[in-house]
Write a structure and sequence with these properties.
The chain is mainly alpha-helical and 321 residues long. It has one domain: MetI-like (MetI-like fold, Orthogonal Bundle). It is built from eleven helices and two strands; from the N terminus they run H-H-H-E-E-H-H-H-H-H-H-H-H. A two-stranded antiparallel sheet has the order 1-2. Helix 7 packs across helix 9. It is globular, with a radius of gyration of 26 Å.
Length: 321
Amino acid sequence: MNRARGQDSAVPWLGAEDRRAEEDRSPLVKIPRGLYKFARRKPLGAFGGALVFLLFFLAVFGAGISVGPIRVPAVAPYHYNAYELGENRLEGPSRSHIMGTDQLGRDIFSRLVYGARISVFIGLGVFAISTLLSTSLTLVSAYYIRSVDLILQRLMEVVSFIPDLILLIALFSIYGATPVTLVLTVGVLGGVNTSRVLRSVIIGLRGLPYVEAAKSLGASDRRVITRHILPNVAFIIIVGATSAIAGAITIEAGLAIIGFGLSPSYPSWGNMMNASREFLRVAPHMAIFPGLMLALTIFGFRLLGDALRDVLDPRLRGRGR
């Protein structure tokens, strides 16, 4: 009887432990705890993540957004193309225009906010296309190294021999200098160029003992690829996302500066920097603020990518603690 009573009295305590364990496994608890741990271990990475979050915040909410009856007000005080002819031209930073105005009197801060949406669209689009292309082709190519790899690698070499700049200019002249054309072109070229690193890692993984053990137990090729190889290269894909997004934004700005960027009707950061070249002496703020925004964005992605590599790469775990 005493033993039974002791067991009954222990049941509520076990239930409390189970409830606490269940709360610890909840995403509402795990996500903030994981972010706090990441920020404590990698403060520079957390700073980079804050810059990236600011970019995405401006891209989503900068121009205003409506979700059903809910209307979120815009961060930008003006429309990106709003101006009054002959007024407020080349005005420096002031209370009404915190970053000044351009040669037409348009608010630079508002154009930067609208340009963030274009930069995020280009970066995420290039990352999605390049990652999907490089991951799918490389997994098949590196796993079936004798049969499929020879054909795919020759095709990738042919594509990689085409000069990127010449191909972009040719496609812009045919289909127009639009963000969609830029995303598709840079995404395909980026997927081909980044597949070589992923291929070398997968070739090394396919000969490891646990992969051979899965094959000997009768696991299909699809199961081996999805359950044993892909999870072990996921950190490369995640870290590569930061480089792909930053690289795509840099490509857009670089093309615009040399005069082969998007149509001037788009308020991209590269177009803003290109338009500022004629007014650097009288209105240097036209180049300073877009350049600073571009530099902070690339800097944030680089810091975040380095921190994610240190945290997610199994070969680097345990260092720098």
